[in-house]
Design a protein that fits this description.
With about 140 residues, this protein is mostly beta strands. The chain is built from two helices and eight strands.
Amino acid sequence: MLYAGYSTAQQYDLLIKHGHVIDPKNHINAILDVAVTNGKIAKVSKDIDATQSKKTIDATGLYVIPGLIDVHTHVFVGTKPATFADGVYSVSPDDFTFKSGVTTVVDAGTAGWQNFALFKEQVIDKSQTRILAFLNIFGH
């Protein structure tokens, strides 16, 4: 029973309406709604009632996709930030990834076997972005 001034609690934290959902794993390529609860996809359907969500985003004309992987980055700053492949051409992964839909990056050999531990400590362990790495054949 509902009382005046009271409503049922919203089932979803976020509702993305009318986006072009592309999800290869589940063979989806259609205009759909996506509901999110506690940071996880709760429902994907043709029309989810907006009153069931705390926040709704109209994604008409936009793509809704799983996180992208950037397969060539340089994200290790290293010990000498003023030299090539040791800082000056590297970027901070969390500063560019999420706003561009990237959830995983692959560092293309900025670190070698001798300084990989430093790379892991300085960047990989402190980033929210998932970082995979190719090791440079040069030691560091």
